[in-house]
Amino acid sequence: MPDRRLFLQASTISQYVGQIVEQTVTPLGLPGFLLALLFHLRENARVTPSAIAALSGTPATTLRDNIQRLVDAGLARRIPNPDDGRSYLIELTTKGEQVARDVQPALLEAYLALEQRLEQPLSHYQEAFAAVTKALESALAELTSADIAAAGSSSASATRRRRTPSSPRRARQPPRR
Questions:
Q1: Tell me: the pLDDT tens digits for 80-114?
Q2: What is the pTM of this model?
Q3: Is 74 left (phi over 0), alpha (psi -120 to 50) or beta?
Q4: Helices 6-25/94-117 angle, 10° precision
Q5: d(C-alpha 153, C-alpha 159), whole Å
Q6: Which residues are 90's β-sheet partners?
Q7: Domain span including residue 84
Q8: What is the CATH number of the domain that holds 47?
Q9: Are residue 59 and residue 133 in the same domain, yes or no?
Q10: Exposed (0-12), middle (13-18) or buried (19+): which is 78, by Cβ within 10 Å?
Q11: 135 and 74 co-located in one domain
Q12: DSSP for 92-107, written as a single string
């Protein structure tokens, strides 16, 4: 049987990174779980939530909640999207920019402590992580499209099973409001 520990290893790495980030930035007033979003917003100023979701791999509902947390803390703001009136853009406030700058020295210290312990050059790990990330994105897209197709297929099958030759087709009703 092939070795299938990659998911476990990735999960373990995620837990260690989360603990290091939490211990590093929480004393500075930022919950660790918001750090990546803060930096994604800093690097991609005036960006849509869907673009951040794609960049970060964060589900839209989780992202929406975390954006609200940053807005409530005065670290980010929503602005109208000039290209799509139904959407909005997110950007860091001056306070958000300051918090991002304030956490960098402590984060750099933790990062350098890790880098000193790596057995191979940093680029080796960065390339491997990039390849795994790309493969995970592709696998998730395939699973998601298969789930959508299966849901559509099972919904159509269920509809066909409910109708018998003697049952008339109902006229489509407008959606309830």
A1: 999 988 889 999 999 999 999 999 998 999 999 99
A2: 0.70
A3: left
A4: 120
A5: 10
A6: 47, 78
A7: 12-117
A8: 1.10.10.10
A9: no
A10: middle
A11: no
A12: E-HHHHHHHHHHHHHH
At 78, the amino acid letter reads R
- For residues 45 and 107, the answer to whether their CB atoms sit within 8 Å is no
What is the DSSP code (8-state) at residue 89?
Answer: E
On whether the CB atoms of residues 34 and 70 are closer than 8 A, the answer is: yes
Q: What is the DSSP string of 12-60?
A: HHHHHHHHHHHHHHGGGT--GGGHHHHHHHHHT-SB-HHHHHHHHT--H
- The count of other CB atoms within 10 Å of the CB of residue 128 is 11
Same domain, 57 and 131: no
Rounded Cα–Cα distance for residues 141 and 53 (Å): 13
Evaluate whether residue 4 is within a structural domain.
no
Q: Are residues 104 and 137 in the same domain?
A: no
Does residue 170 sit within a domain? no
| Structure tokens given for 110 | 């933790």
Tens-place pLDDT, residues 138-173: 998 898 887 777 777 665 555 444 444 444 444 444
